[in-house]
Design brief:
alpha/beta, 3 domains, 6-stranded mixed sheet, 5-stranded mixed sheet, about 40% helix, about 25% strand
């Protein structure tokens, strides 16, 4: 069974509001084996909402609308759904009585406009709302499709779904199970990754594979749907190892951990510690490492050496070395990592120096050039990476690349 969710409310289209209801509903529906295949947000426009709802009803087995059930003129969900289905809105005295009783319980008179909430779409059931004044509505069609109209306030929506919708859905939904597997990958672009693993996952329609990317971090989501949990797990056990074998140590997490958490666990497991020396990242690397609870168990400290003078004063980098090779060079990155390790007593020292832009760079090392240094008990290595994008992206990916360099070293 598939579902679509429509969040109603012009306020949801502003940058100050986020539709959290659909996230919660998706989790609840997934637990029943119902796949949410589309989510939409629409303003308080009856015609536009009616059009969207009508299209969703043609596609989905279940359509849930959230919001727009209030008493004011801009609350148009009831009218839009009735219009799309060619049905009338019927006034129900018992609904008005329940709304009036709700107002009396909080010592307030019911305004005349609240009567709008007492109208029920012909053929629908009213869903009581002890947490607010807006009744919900539930409809079932002859073709077995289901429709739920739920209030927008999260506490009202969650209570109404649990009290009224959950059991209705359980009676109608076959006992499907959804199993998920998530791989998180660093050090590889989305297109390169997809080219590598697509020959595997495109052979399967179940599980469904989704590739999600942000700078420096790619996620692979596998979702299997079956009647029994063991069948869903078996599908993931068939596809997952094939993808793992292709990606190898590029995979840093199989349980949802972010890169800094996964790296921190390796440091703890190896009874190791780390310190950092940062130039172009300006503290981003240290910030990410210390964002993990318990990082004091392995993070020794850091040096924010944004200028050549600070590289000399805090790390003891020789002026002659910087003058000969420039501050963005393999030699300086090496010296920074080794000094950070030596001056803090950490087992590992990580350094970052580069041109984040928009100015700077040379013909040999243009903007986006970053050198990453890693000093370990086994020696020091330096990696040069050429990044692209704006200043924010270059600095963010540089910190990610430094973390991944450390993580891979800890695996060996």
């Amino acid at each position: 069974m598939n579902a679509e969710i429509i969040a109603v409310g012009s306020e949801m289209l502003t940058p100050a509001r986020t539709d959290t209801n659909s996230l919660w509903l998706t989790d609840q529906l997934n637990q029943l084996g119902i796949e949410v295949v589309a989510k939409m947000i629409v303003g308080d426009d009856r015609l536009r909402l009616a059009t969207l709802f009508g299209a969703a009803l043609l596609r989905a087995d279940l359509v849930i609308l959230t919001g727009g059930l209030g008493p004011t003129e801009d609350d148009v969900t009831r009218e839009a759904v009735a219009q799309a289905m060619g049905r009338q809105l019927l006034y129900k005295q018992e609904l008005e009585d329940a709304i009036a009783a709700r107002f009396r319980s909080i010592n307030r008179p019911m305004a005349e406009i609240n009567r709008r909430q007492a109208f029920l779409i012909d053929g629908f059931e009213a869903l009581s709302n002890p947490r607010g004044t807006a009744p919900g509505q539930w409809g079932e069609m002859e073709n077995a499709k289901m429709i739920a109209l739920l209030p927008g306030p999260p506490n009202e929506l969650k209570g109404m779904y649990t009290d009224h919708c959950l059991e209705r859905l359980r009676k109608r939904v076959p006992p499907q199970r959804i199993a998920t597997l998530v791989f998180r990958v660093a050090g590889m672009g989305e297109s390169d990754l997809d080219q590598l693993i697509a020959p595997v996952y495109t052979r399967y329609t179940n599980p469904v594979t989704t590739v999600l990317a942000k700078p420096g971090d790619v996620q692979i989501h596998l979702r299997a749907r079956c009647w029994r949990q063991d069948e869903a797990d078996a599908l993931l056990a068939e596809v997952g190892p094939q993808i793992e074998s292709l990606l190898g140590d590029r995979i840093y997490s199989r349980n949802g951990d972010d890169l800094e958490t996964a790296t921190g666990k390796l440091l703890l497991e190896g009874n190791a510690s780390v310190s950092v020396a940062e130039s172009c990242t300006g503290g981003l690397l240290a910030s990410r490492i210390t964002s993990v609870p318990g990082s004091s168990g392995y993070f020794r400290g850091g040096f924010l050496v944004y200028t050549n003078a600070m590289k000399q004063a805090l790390l003891g980098i020789e002026e002659k070395l910087i003058a000969e090779h420039t501050e963005v060079s393999e030699e300086v990155a090496r010296a920074m990592a080794e000094a950070a390790r030596a001056r803090t007593g950490a087992t590992h020292g990580v350094s970052v120096t580069g041109y984040a832009g928009p100015d700077g760079g040379t013909e040999a090392n243009p903007v986006g050039t970053v050198f990453l240094g890693l000093a370990t008990p086994a020696g020091t290595k330096v990696r040069r990476v050429q990044l692209f994008g704006d200043r924010h992206r270059i600095r963010s990916v540089a910190a990610t690349s430094a973390l991944d360099l450390l993580r891979r070293s800890l695996l060996r």
